[in-house]
Amino acid sequence: MPSSSSLASRVTSTVLSAATVSADDLRWAADPASLAPSLPVSPCGPIELAALGEALGLGSAAQLLSGFSLLAGESQESPWVISIPEELVQALAAVDPEQGHSGQGRAGHGRAGECSPGDGDMQEPDRLARLARCLDDSDPSEQAQLGGVPRGRSGGAEATVLRRLVTFFGREPGPFVLYLHVRPAGAAAAG
Known about the structure:
By secondary structure, the chain is α+β, with helices and mostly antiparallel strands. About 30% of the residues lie in helices and about 15% in strands. A five-stranded antiparallel sheet has the order 2-1-5-4-3. Strand 3 and strand 4 (about 80-85) form a beta hairpin.
């Protein structure tokens, strides 16, 4: 059985605007990004997006995960097309991509040690960086909150991915889906 880190290196994920294309069309397309506006977010998936929602005060990550739905794909074989809950899209679209503050005045209410946007100070300059830590897999206390499931990116790219994601959600028409594909073991990563 492959380790979770080798599996994570084979997963590619893309957020797509599904306003004009069906989930089945996306699943079977050779290049789904050619069918709809898209944003590569590898290896960000539902767990990372749910953690962002939790940091924005939308509920627990476990509750938010229940809002993601498999729209197209078989349970054991990729690719999968998964809906992204509208409430999460709206909350992320309201985050200022430069400062990380929400135009709606929402603050996260996380406990100490959790990825949290701040203490209610919506002008906090490092709020985006705090939210971006929800995409980072380096904090074991955050992994424990989701049953030990490792999540996210490492290496400092989290804030860039988050900035692009909130900009994409604010610019493109919804609904939005997450396209996940697992390359077979031994397959070279696309460059």
